[in-house]
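Morning. Coffee machine broken again, so started the prediction first thing and wrote up yesterday's gels while waiting. Chain of 125 residues, entered below exactly as on the submission form.
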Amino acid sequence: MLLMSKVNTMQDREAIMTLHRAGHSNCSIVDLLKDNGMTYKTVYNVIKWYKESGSTADWPHSGWPRTSMTPAAIKRTWEKVCQNSVCSMNKMAKEEGVSYSTMFRICQEEGVHRVQQVNHSLHEC
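Came back before lunch.
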């Protein structure tokens, strides 16, 4: 299975295939699209995927899709942190009904930084 770089969109793949159909080599496509962050490996993978599948559509992803990091869960996390910045990550995860690692990932990816850390036995969420 080929892995797609996150930088590439459908338009990027279409641009690669348009240049490929026009007779450009992989190296010349990289030179032309270098400003868009294209690498030789990306161009090679897109062309290879097109030859195998006949399409430039997104290829299958492995693993179960993330379902607990919804915009609503992220919004509720922000609200909880704004209301009480000393609430423990574990308590927020239990209240939200997600695992500690998911809550940690939400906070990390969304830039939620704890204001302070104190003895949590003294504070309740």
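The domain at 1-63 is CATH 1.10.10 (Arc Repressor Mutant, subunit A). Going to sketch it on the whiteboard this afternoon.
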